[in-house]
Design goal:
The chain has 255 residues and is an alpha+beta fold. It has helices spanning 2-38, 52-59, 72-99, 107-111; strands at residues 133-135, 138-145, 150-154, 157-160, 166-168, 173-181, 185-193, 196-204, 213-214, 219-223, 236-243, 246-248. Strand 11 and strand 12 form a beta hairpin. The N and C termini lie far apart (171 Å).
């Protein structure tokens, strides 16, 4: 009987040791598995994204955000500011120019000190246009006018010139009158001082206005197409010189 009990006790001890051994093996296997999982470099905990940046962007109003240097938004804001500043400057300039009255032709010369007009019998004039004299001055005898097919006196000279040739002031003068008639077309009367006046006729595209001062050599206008009184003679400048309202020979005063 004792031998059976002893044998049963030994069997139970063996079973207990066997179970403990199995549990030890299972536990060891679990530890090894956990260590292998940690070797992958991944945390066993759930990572939560950092919410600080998200919260800051949502809570700061867009109009109050400060542009960061180097940010594309910063460059766009700077470009927008530059365009606004340039637009403001352009508007201010336009308003300034609009407020500045336009200067009338010749007003600048009128505002300047008047030229000394001291034409006399010893003064030499410049040719108002370069060309041949095709009709001479003649007040003591008549000369033939081809277009009119008649003889008559001529109080001035007719100087040949191509259309659009510049016509210049023969001396310092003040524009006394600007007008137009059938014979001379557009004309300019120059007051040169000491009761000397000159008439330039058959002009176009006048560059002067009445009461304007001009210096010798300033452009008065350009040679126009001839009027019907000079169609055969062709394009020309009619030039007349008077002293005390009496015509005198311009060639006596030409350089």
């Amino acid at each position: 009987m004792k031998e059976k009990m002893s044998q049963l006790f030994k069997d139970k001890v063996f079973l207990v040791l066997l179970v403990l051994g199995l549990l030890t093996i299972v536990a060891a296997a679990g530890v090894i598995t956990i260590q292998r999982g940690n070797n992958d470099g991944q945390s066993p905990y759930l990572e939560v994204p950092d919410q600080k940046g998200v919260i800051a962007e949502e809570t700061i109003p867009q109009e109050n955000q400060v542009a960061v240097a180097g940010d594309s938004n910063a460059e766009q804001n700077l470009d927008a500011d530059t365009q606004v500043a340039d637009s403001a400057k352009a508007t201010a300039k336009a308003e300034t120019e609009a407020e500045t009255p336009a200067v009338k032709a010749g007003a600048e010369k009128e505002a300047a000190a008047a030229l000394v007009l001291n034409f006399n019998d010893a003064t030499k004039m410049a040719w108002p246009v370069s060309g041949n004299v095709i009709l001479d001055y003649s007040m003591e005898s008549t000369i033939y006018f081809p277009t009119l097919d008649q003889y008559k006196c001529n109080p001035g000279i007719v100087i040949q010139g191509a259309v659009s040739t510049p016509v210049v002031a023969p001396a310092n003068a003040k524009i006394q009158e600007i007008g137009s008639n059938e014979e001379l077309g557009n004309y300019v009367i120059l007051n040169m001082g000491n009761d000397y006046t000159a008439v330039c006729g058959q002009l176009k595209e006048l560059q002067v206005v009445e009461n304007e001062y001009v210096a010798q050599g300033d452009v008065l206008g350009y040679v126009a197409e001839p009027t019907k009184y000079y169609s055969i003679e062709g394009a020309n400048l009619y030039f007349e010189l008077e002293h005390e309202n009496h015509p005198v020979d311009p060639l006596d005063f030409m350089q």
